[in-house]
Every structure is written in structure tokens, then in C-alpha cells.
Design brief:
The complex is a heterotrimer of chains A (497), B (174) and C (345). By secondary structure, chain A is an all-alpha fold. Helix content of chain A is 75%, strand content 0%. The radius of gyration of chain A is 22 Å and the shape is globular. Chain C is α/β, with parallel strands linked by helices and 345 residues long. In chain C, 44% of the residues lie in helices and 19% in strands. In chain C, strand 1, helix 4 and strand 2 form a beta-alpha-beta unit. Classes of the chains: A mainly alpha (497), B mainly alpha (174), C alpha/beta (345).
Chain lengths: 497, 174, 345
């Protein structure tokens, strides 16, 4: 690409700075409310995006989309409630930080990781979009099975203090994920007679129940969600904590870059998504860490990795839409509707007929991150004050709004019932030492794993050797094996020493 | 056993962790669900049954391991059988499950009252129950939350949330 | 449940066909009751907004197609349309809601795709009965089944693919197994003895992606949604007597023309459905609906609104109640015929 075109594209995107400002603000808000993700919001705002010019519509959607990834980390840290599945991994270390009175630092880590990761991957996408699009040609069902297993192995390590209970939570989660029509014959399984479960357990209501409702129920035992020491620290907090957070993040800039790359690669595969990206990044981050035992206790890297990755996914996930005209995920599918409505030629033709529009997507992303850096970073100080609000006020607000969030994606009252049921389940789990994140990993990744597994088997006519039939797949298997054995080996060595 | 019971994100309380009993609820519920799952897939094509059968088998093995571990701990006198993990004071129970009951009411009432009115009533009653005081504060919080929700979801986003008297009344204004 | 084999041929009218048929007086007779409908209508129907239930998601192809048609129809009827979305269980949630919870007053209509949703009816055993509980009283938009391969595929023609299938297993990506596009592949396999295997990808987009990125040999899917990838693929055939958009689909020939077969037309005809009780109770209202539908179709406004929705007007057709019913019954028959493949592969 010529420098001239590049400058043109950035100038074009920059002329919509005001729209990006509005869209990113809205995106952060809706990302932070479980149930009101980017996809849902873009559907709601179809009357707007269909009415305005195409570049305006696209700028708006892209800015909203990346901002929603940024926003979903906020409640994950402050309230232990991920805004979307992509931020579930953020709760593992983000919330413990908040409880210690370090919510501000944790928020800054999220913002810097999201911005830097998103900025970096969007920039790479501009120059390497052709190559990145090829990833989808090499990562098919077999390879995706192995990639998802990376995420699934988190189940075993996440509950480091009691792996057995972690595994039980995860397996029950996987079994819940296997509710609904099977992926080959569409035969309904364990739906309790509810048509609403035919397509499987709805993830947002389950997530809201497991995290938000149960958290609110547990929270009521104490007047504040903070520890006494954490409260002290929060009351003293000022701008210094924001700076401290920036330092913490920048010191680990290489960590942000490589975990965002994991997100970019996963995002470029149609059908993967932010949940897979962030779980795999968290797992990899922990694997190569010198202090794996610190993960889960409020470790900065545990916040950086999933957040950098889910913004990397955002950069990657629009690539199949632009290059192949096939949306890689649900949000991109809605964007396809808008773009085809406006008569935009997607696929190879787009890069011939309107390269400005294609690359403009990533220029918008880059600018969105720049703008968000300015708007959201200073907000950390004020947002973190949420942790000081008494639980008797916080709990009803959480329950009320997240129940509406459970309703929103499908507009079924039934889904509010799902959230309440999972609320009780999550409450029991928390009170008796089972890990809700482990169960959520099962519920989210289970159906994706099963779909890819079944497809691979059917492609091969039932030959299970198909899973070892590709070179890339085999390399991934070896890496998976190494990622399971490496921690065992190092703990054995530590014990010996 | 003692250190195992603690949740990793530290949500459970910090009492001595030598009690076994309450932590059997999840595995037992899991096994019950597994049984139902197997029953529901009987007669489906083999491939549709594969995942379910595999997962149920793994779950059974894990629960057996957990039971063995618990049994050993009980036999050695390192643990006692008790449901105290779930014990709560009358007041906490009333607050917690009172709010939960109100939440059920909220879900059932929203189709009739609409989003704005039902969230206002839910927040109002919940905070009353949770003894937030003074009452004027409850009103202000519930009103502001409902108003912000209305402006964001109904006015700005046009979300498909249930409409009720408030939405109908305000539709003329916005 | 009536699962008798219906008549094989469908009386489906394209716009050109309709004009011809009307001139000949054939189809004119079909619409005779409708033409006097307005005069007969005694109440001031429609006096309020029409309620359209969509059994798929908001913003999807069916939704947009409904909006394209209703823009002009609403003006003729002098009323607006409100939409409710009840996706899930391949449309079953929407149909159960429509039949169980919507008043049969002719204000409540359902807009769905006959092909896939009748296969759902045949395979999922819902609680309602067709045509006792509801009927499709007018189809307005077609979405034909096509088979295509990626541009760089070694298969140039449908015959190439069949020949390959006679020596090895050929994989097709599709959205679900119980779907008209899968039935199209089963029909081909049955006819030629080729080893054709349909892999369900859970949706049209993932299915197209799998074929574009080389995981499978070919894709069996709907034509309308494939047009966005038209410049990266080679269309091999269309399961329709006529290719409606030859210019956009490298002049792919109809399957019966290539094979010399007599396969039924397969696709997802989008049609309005109404409670059978409403037809019995409010014949005037239904007659008025039919009459104004045709009026809208013939006005030319529909095509313009279709373009406005970013859809292809070539797929606009008008299909009357009788032909819709025949097409629906035919789909049930096909689903029953291939039940063993839909259940056991």
C-alpha cells in the first residue's frame, strides 16, 4: 500500500472523529452492561446505520464494536461480572485486584492493554490483511478442536487450590453446553421440554446468572465488597493510582503485544471469537509466566492477557468479512447486513473497487483506540469508586439491570428465568468452593468444541485419525501436550529443589 | 481437605474448612442432571450421543474421586459432616432470598408493567427490604436508575424491552 | 397429521407467468373471490396495525424481505406493520407462538420460509398441524437452492462433481441437515449413486466459509445469500426450473436441464401465513389481504422497495395459497422420504 493511500485513509477516518467519540462512548457503556453487546446494539440501531452514508455507518459500527470489547472488562473488574464472554477471563485476576482496593490500577491495566493490543493488531491488519485472511484456509475443524482444548485446559488449572472441584465444575459446564440440538442431526438433547433451549443454553443469561446474580446474592453478606484494607486504600486513592496502573501496564508491553497477537490469529478464523481468544491468551500467559501461582490472586498479567487478546480478536474478526465476504462472528454478520444493504461489494472486489473502505475499517479502529485512550483513562479514578458503594444499593441495581440484559438478546422472559436459575447455582458453587469461571468455560467453549469435533469426524466418515491428519494440527497437539506437561515438570523440579 | 474448600476468588467466608456436606450439593446435582441427560438422548443417533456419554463418564469418575477423598478425610477424622457452609443468619437469609423473590416478581411483572416501571418498583422494594435509609434516598436512587435505563435503552437504543404505562405515556414526549 | 403425497407439480407464478396466466383466465379464477373481497368486507378492516411474527432473527433475510413487501402493502391497506421476532428451534418457537398465543383475527400474520420450516414441521413433530391450524396464503419471495464450488476448485461442472463422488466421498457444507439444500444433495446422490456427504455447519455463513476456505468440496445453500460471495465461487446448478439471475451466477443451469431428471424445485419460498381459523371466521378480511397483496406485487413498488432493502428483485414472485400449500406438502413428503438420512446420515 502506498503511503499516500495510507494517509488518505487515516484522514478520511479522522474526519469522523466526532462520530467515533459518540460511538466509542456508547460502545463502552453497552459493553459494560451484560446482554447489551455490540451485536445486539447494532441490530437495535439498524434504522440509523441503514439511513446514513455507508462510510458513516461503517465507522459507527466499527468504533462501537471495538469499544464494547473495552467496556466489557469494566464490570468484570469492579463487580466480578463480565460484560461479555470475552471478558470472563478478566474476572479471574481483575476482581481480586478490585477487592484489594486496586480497582483503579486494574481498570487502567484493562484500558492500556485493550488500547495497545487493539492498536497494534489493527495496525498489523492494515499491512497483512491478505496473509491474515489465509489463516482461515489452514485452521479448519480439526485445528480448531485443538485450539479450543487450549482454552478448556484452563478448567484444570484455574482452580489451582482444588483442581478436582475445578474439573467437576468444568465438566458440568461442558454437559450444560451440550444441551440443545446436536450439531449433526439437530436432535434435541436434555432441553427439559423447553423449545427455548433447542439451540443450546443461551450464554448471556447463563453468564449473568453465574456471575452477576450469584455475586449479588453473596455480596449481601457484607456491607462492602471491599476488604477492610482495600477500603482504606480506595478512600485514599487519587491520580497516583492511575499513573501506577499505566506504569504496571507499560512495563509489561511485550506481554500485551504477544497476547494480542493470539487474539488476532484466533479472531481471523471464522466462527472463533473473543471468548476463545481471551481464554487461550490467559492460559498461555500463565503457562509461560515465572510466577504461575500468582494467577488468580490479582496478578497484573492475568488482567492484561485476556484484555489484549479480546481486542486483538476484534481486529481479526472483521478480516473474513472484508476479504471473504463471510462474517466470522455474530457482530460481523449484522455488519454484513448493513454493508450489503448499502451495496458494498465485499470480498476480493472490495479491495479493487474501494480499498479505502476496506482499510478504513482498521484506520477507524486505530483512531477509536486513540480517542478512547484520552476519554476512558481518566475515568478509571471515578469508575473505581463503584467499589465503595454499599452492597445494599449495588446488589439490587446489579440484579435489576443484568436481568434486563438477560432478556435483551432474544426478548424471552424465559431467559430471565435461566439467569435466576444460574444465579442460585452460582451462589451454591461459590459457597461450597466450586469455580464459576470453570463452569462458564465449559458452557461457552463446549458447544464450539463439540461442533468442530463432530464436523471433523463427519468429514472423515467417522475416522478418528482425522484429528492427526494435518501438519498444523499435529504441531498444535504437540504444543498442547507441552503446555500440559511443562507446568507439571516445573513443579516437579521445584519440589525436588 | 481444609485448604481445598476455599474458592479461588476468595468469595467464600474464612471459617475453618473442615466441613464436608454442602460441597456435595453440586456433584449430586451434576449427577442428577447427567442421569437426565442420558435418559434424554437414549434413542438418538450415535454421534448425537457421543459427547453426552463421554462427559457423563468423566463426571462420574471425578465425583467418585471426590467422594473417596472426602471419605478418607472423614475416616481420618480430618473433617466433619456438616452443611454449615450454607448456614446464614435469619436476617441475611431474609435479605438474600427476599431480594431473590423480588427478582422473580420483577421477571414475572415486566411484561405487564413495562421495563421502566417494573425496574423502579423492583429497586424500590429491594432497597426497602435491605433497609437502605433514609427512604428519600431509596426513591432518588430508584428513580434515577429507572430514568437512566429508560433514556439509554428505550429512547437512545430503541431496545425491544417490554413497554408499559410509563413508556406509553412518555412516548408522546420523546 | 396429514402426510399424504401431494401433487408433484407446483403452480408457482412468476410475474411474467402471472400476466400470462391471468390473460388466459387460468389463474384469474384463483383470484376471483379475492377480487370481490374489498366490496364484501363489512367491517373496517384493517382498523389497526398488522402484527407480523417472524420465526427468525431481526435483521435477517426473512425480516428484510418482509419489510420490502410491507412498505407498499401497508400503503394499500392503509395501515402499518409491527414485527415480533421469535427465532429458535429452526422456526418452531415462532410457529408455536403464532398458533398457540396469537389471536386468529387476520391482524396476526406470520412471515416465514416454507421450505426449511416445513422440513422442521416434518422432523421435529411440533404441537400444531398443517394445514388445519395455519396456511400460507401468499408467497412473495423465493430463495432457490444452489450448489457451488470455490473459484479455484478443480470441479468445473456438476458432472465433474458427480463423477468424483462415484469414486470417493465428496463433502458438501450446508447449514443444517434437515434443510432443502441438504435434500437437494440427497436427491442427486440417490439419482447418481455418488457418495455425497453433507456436513452441517449450523448456519449459512459458516457453511459458505467452509467451502471458500477449502474444508469441503462444495456448498449446498440458498442462492440469495450466496450472491455476496459470487465473485469467489462457481455456481454449478440451481434447483429450480429456471435460473432467475443467470448473469450473477455464471449462467448456472437448472439441475433438471443438466441431469435430465424431474427433481422438484427446492428452496425457501417466503410466504405469509395465517390461522386457518381466521380464514373460516373472517373470509372477507383474508380476501382483502390476498387482493391487496397481488395489487402491491403488480404495482412495481415492491421491486423498488426490494432494491432499497439491498435484496434482489429477481427473486420476487407471487405464489397463491393453493400453490403454497402444494409446495409445503411436497416438502413434508421429501422430508419423510429422506428421514433415514436426516436421522442417521
Amino acid at each position: 500500500m502506498s503511503l499516500e493511500l495510507l494517509i488518505d485513509i487515516f484522514l478520511g477516518a479522522a474526519s469522523y472523529w466526532w462520530l467515533i467519540l459518540i460511538a466509542t462512548t456508547l460502545g463502552i457503556i453497552i459493553g459494560a452492561i451484560p446482554g447489551f453487546g455490540a451485536q445486539n446494539t447494532i441490530i437495535m440501531l439498524l434504522p440509523f446505520t441503514l439511513a446514513v452514508q455507508v462510510d458513516m455507518a461503517l465507522t459507527f459500527m466499527v468504533a462501537l464494536y471495538v469499544a464494547s470489547h473495552m467496556g466489557s472488562g469494566i464490570p468484570a473488574i469492579l463487580l466480578n461480572i463480565p460484560g461479555t464472554g470475552g471478558a470472563a477471563a478478566t474476572t479471574i485476576d481483575g476482581y481480586p485486584m478490585a477487592k484489594k482496593g486496586m480497582a483503579q490500577q486494574a481498570l487502567v491495566l484493562t484500558f492500556v492493554a485493550s488500547t495497545l493490543g487493539g492498536f497494534f493488531t489493527a495496525f498489523i491488519a492494515i499491512f497483512a490483511i491478505g496473509y491474515l485472511a489465509r489463516i482461515a484456509f489452514f485452521l479448519h475443524s480439526v485445528e480448531m478442536v485443538v485450539i479450543m482444548l487450549f482454552g478448556i485446559t484452563l478448567i484444570a488449572v484455574i482452580a489451582a487450590k482444588d483442581p478436582l472441584k475445578g474439573l467437576i465444575s468444568g465438566i458440568i459446564g461442558l454437559l450444560i453446553g451440550a444441551i440443545g440440538a446436536d450439531h449433526i442431526y439437530s436432535a434435541p438433547r436434555a432441553t427439559f421440554g423447553f423449545l427455548e433451549l433447542y439451540e443450546g443454553m443461551p450464554i448471556i443469561p447463563a453468564l449473568i446468572g453465574l456471575f452477576a446474580i450469584s455475586e449479588a446474592l453473596v455480596m449481601l453478606e457484607k456491607r462492602s465488597m471491599l476488604t477492610a484494607e482495600g477500603r482504606e486504600r480506595m478512600l485514599r486513592a487519587g491520580w497516583r493510582e492511575t499513573l501506577e496502573g499505566i506504569q504496571m501496564a507499560l512495563k509489561r508491553w511485550t506481554h500485551i503485544l504477544w497476547t494480542s497477537l493470539i487474539g488476532l490469529v484466533v479472531g481471523a478464523v471464522p466462527g472463533a471469537g473473543a471468548s476463545i481468544g481471551s481464554f487461550v491468551a490467559y492460559q498461555q500467559s500463565r503457562l509461560y509466566s515465572k510466577t504461575p501461582e500468582a494467577y488468580g490472586t490479582g496478578h497484573p498479567e492475568g488482567v492484561l492477557a485476556p484484555e489484549a487478546a479480546n481486542n486483538g480478536v476484534a481486529s481479526g474478526s472483521l478480516i473474513p468479512l472484508l476479504v471473504l465476504a463471510v462474517p466470522g462472528g455474530t457482530t460481523a454478520a449484522v455488519m454484513l447486513v448493513v454493508l450489503s444493504y448499502h451495496g458494498v461489494p465485499l470480498g476480493p472486489r472490495l479491495f479493487v473497487e474501494d480499498p479505502g473502505l476496506a482499510y478504513g475499517v482498521f484506520a477507524t479502529m486505530v483512531l477509536s483506540y486513540l480517542i478512547m485512550m484520552v476519554t476512558i483513562l481518566p475515568m478509571s479514578k471515578y469508575l473505581s469508586r463503584v467499589t465503595l458503594v454499599g452492597t445494599t444499593i449495588l446488589a439490587p441495581i446489579i440484579i435489576g439491570f443484568t436481568l434486563v440484559g438477560a432478556f435483551s438478546p432474544r426478548a424471552y422472559i424465559f431467559d430471565m428465568g435461566v439467569a435466576l436459575t444460574f444465579g442460585v447455582l452460582g451462589y451454591l458453587m461459590r459457597k461450597t468452593g466450586y469455580h464459576v469461571v470453570a463452569m462458564l468455560i465449559g458452557i461457552i467453549l463446549g458447544p464450539l468444541l463439540e461442533a468442530n469435533f463432530m464436523r471433523a469426524l463427519r468429514l472423515s466418515g467417522g475416522d478418528s485419525m482425522v484429528f492427526f491428519s494435518s501438519t498444523i494440527g499435529n504441531v498444535l497437539w504437540l504444543m498442547l501436550l507441552a503446555s500440559i506437561l511443562l507446568p507439571l515438570y516445573s513443579s516437579w523440579r521445584r519440589n525436588r529443589a | 481437605m481444609s485448604e481445598h474448600n476455599k474458592d479461588d476468588d476468595g468469595d467464600t467466608d474464612d471459617r475453618a474448612r473442615t466441613r464436608i456436606g454442602a460441597d456435595l450439593i453440586i456433584p449430586v446435582a451434576g449427577l442428577a442432571f447427567a442421569g437426565y441427560y442420558l435418559w434424554s438422548i437414549a434413542g438418538l443417533p450415535g454421534m448425537a450421543q457421543f459427547s453426552g456419554r463421554f462427559l457423563v463418564a468423566v463426571l462420574v469418575v471425578l465425583v467418585v474421586l471426590l467422594a473417596l477423598r472426602m471419605g478418607t478425610a472423614l475416616a481420618r477424622g480430618e473433617a466433619e459432616f456438616s452443611f454449615a457452609d450454607l448456614a446464614e443468619t435469619r436476617k441475611t437469609a431474609l435479605m438474600r432470598w427476599g431480594v431473590f423473590a423480588l427478582a422473580i416478581g420483577f421477571a414475572l411483572g415486566i411484561p405487564y408493567l413495562g421495563f421502566t416501571l417494573s425496574i423502579f418498583v423492583f429497586l424500590l422494594l429491594s432497597m426497602l427490604l435491605l433497609q437502605v435509609r433514609p427512604i428519600s434516598r431509596i426513591f432518588i436512587i430508584a428513580f434515577c436508575a429507572a430514568a437512566v435505563g429508560y433514556l439509554l435503552f428505550i429512547v437512545a437504543l430503541g431496545a425491544r424491552l417490554p413497554r408499559g404505562p410509563v413508556e406509553t405515556f412518555l412516548a408522546g414526549i420523546f | 397429521m396429514d402426510r399424504k403425497t401431494p401433487n408433484k407439480s407446483t403452480t408457482r407464478l412468476t410475474r411474467r407467468g402471472l400476466i400470462k396466466a391471468t390473460t388466459l383466465g387460468g389463474a384469474g379464477a384463483l383470484f376471483a373471490p379475492a377480487l370481490v373481497g374489498r366490496a364484501l368486507a363489512q367491517d373496517d378492516f384493517p382498523s389497526r396495525t398488522m402484527q407480523i411474527l417472524i420465526p427468525t432473527g431481526e435483521g435477517g433475510g426473512v425480516d428484510r424481505s418482509a419489510r420490502a413487501f410491507n412498505a407498499g402493502w401497508g400503503e394499500i391497506l392503509g395501515t402499518g406493520f409491527e414485527y415480533g421476532y421469535f427465532p429458535g428451534a429452526a422456526g418452531q418457537v415462532g410457529y408455536e407462538t403464532f398458533i398457540g398465543r396469537r389471536e386468529p383475527d387476520a391482524y396476526n400474520l406470520l412471515y416465514g420460509a416454507i421450505g426449511p420450516e416445513m422440513i422442521m414441521y416434518a422432523t421435529q413433530n411440533p404441537s400444531y398441524t398443517f394445514p388445519d391450524d395455519y396456511v400460507y396464503f401468499g408467497g412473495v419471495n423465493a430463495d432457490d437452492v444452489v450448489i457451488w464450488v470455490a473459484e479455484d476448485s478443480p470441479f468445473q461442472t456438476l458432472e465433474d462433481l458427480i463423477e468424483e463422488g462415484q469414486s470417493r466421498r465428496v463433502n458438501f457444507s450446508g447449514s443444517r441437515l434437515p434443510h432443502p439444500a441438504s435434500i437437494a444433495v440427497f436427491l442427486l446422490a440417490e439419482e447418481t449413486g455418488a457418495d455425497f456427504n453433507v456436513i452441517p455447519y449450523g448456519g449459512g455463513n459458516p457453511a459458505r466459509s467452509a467451502a471458500l476456505t477449502g474444508e469441503v468440496d462444495a456448498c449446498c445453500t440458498h442462492m440469495g445469500s450466496s450472491l455476496s460471495v459470487a465473485d469467489q465461487v462457481r455456481f454449478l446448478t440451481v434447483f429450480q426450473d429456471e435460473n432467475r439471475v443467470p448473469g450473477l451466477t455464471n449462467d448456472a443451469l437448472p439441475v433438471n436441464e443438466i441431469m435430465g431428471t424431474d427433481f422438484p424445485e427446492l428452496g425457501g419460498l417466503r410466504a405469509f401465513a395465517i390461522h386457518t381459523a381466521a380464514i373460516e371466521q373472517y373470509p372477507d378480511r383474508v380476501a382483502l389481504l390476498k387482493e391487496t397483496m397481488l395489487e402491491n406485487f403488480e404495482s412495481g413498488r415492491y421491486d423498488a422497495d426490494t432494491l432499497d432493502q439491498g435484496l434482489t428483485p429477481e427473486f420476487n414472485v407471487f405464489v397463491d395459497q393453493e400453490a403454497c400449500t402444494r409446495s409445503a406438502m411436497e416438502m413434508v413428503e421429501l422430508a419423510n422420504r429422506f428421514e433415514h438420512l436426516l436421522r442417521d446420515g
